[in-house]
Amino acid sequence: MTAKFLTVITMKEEKIKETVRLQFEIINLFQKNFAKIFHKAGDIPYSLNKNQNRAIMIIGSTDNIMPTTLGKCLDLQKGSLTSMIDALEREGLVYRKKDPQDRRKNLISLTEKGNAYREWFIGKLEENVSDILRRLDEEDILAYKESLQIMFTTLKKLDDTA
Fold first, then answer.
1. What is the 3-state secondary structure (H, E, C) of 93-124?
2. Residue 48 contacts by C-beta under 8 Å, 6 or more apart in sequence?
3. pLDDT tens for the chain, residues 1 to 162
4. Residue 93, phi then psi, degrees to nearest 5
5. What pLDDT shows up at residue 7?
6. Is 64 helix (H, G, I), strand (E, B) or coil?
7. Long-range contacts of 120-127 (CB under 8 A, 24+ apart)
8. Which residue in 3, 11, 57, 146 has the most C-beta neighbors within 10 A?
9. How far apart are CA 62 and CA 106, in angstroms?
10. At what angle are helices 50-62 and 78-90 packed, to 10 degrees?
11. What is the number of helices (H) and of strands (E) in the chain?
12. Taking the complete model, does pTM exceed 0.85, yes or no?
């Protein structure tokens, strides 16, 4: 291997290490500033926990989702995931149905009640996030939005390659 090739590898690895550090710093700051809004949504019609609220958001964004995919999105083990889906089903917010392409598989979908709750919850999230972002000036809001768009595009590339 040439010295130039090794330098390129070393530079790439260093950039990856810096990116990993920055990613975890961002996750920590995001959790500190925004994750709490999943808890303080106001007069919540159901007593759902953070993961249940996140599940409602994910299921509603896809219409139908396999439990294993939902578990990956929420980073939940099979037993915890099953318990959570059971609880959401008891509340009348989700239902299980057979996958029309493969009857061995189940899909999770929101009920009409679940969709109504999701719309209400999105409104509350928007209110709370807006309150947080109002602390920034317009230029910072635009920069944040553009940064999120770049992160979203990059994460979608990673998701497509997984």
1. CEEEEEECCEEEEEEEEECHHHHHHHHHHHHH
2. 56, 88, 91
3. 566 655 667 888 888 899 999 999 998 888 888 877 776 555 667 788 889 999 999 999 998 999 999 999 999 999 999 999 999 999 999 999 988 888 888 999 999 999 999 999 999 889 989 999 999 999 999 999 999 999 999 989 988 665
4. -95, -25
5. 67
6. strand
7. 120/45, 121/41, 121/53, 121/56, 121/57, 122/57, 124/37, 124/41, 124/42, 125/37, 125/38, 125/41
8. 57
9. 14
10. 80
11. 6, 3
12. no
CA distance 107 to 69: 10
Dihedral-angle region of residue 75 (phi above 0 means left; psi in -120 to 50 means alpha; beta otherwise):
left
Do residues 77 and 97 make contact, with C-beta atoms less than 8 angstroms apart? no
| Cβ partners under 8 Å of residue 93, min gap 6 | 46, 56, 110, 111, 113, 114, 117
Q: How far apart are CA 47 and CA 66, in angstroms?
A: 24
Give Cβ neighbours of residue 46 (< 8 Å, ≥ 6 apart): 91, 93, 117
Contact present, 118 and 57 (Cβ < 8 Å): yes
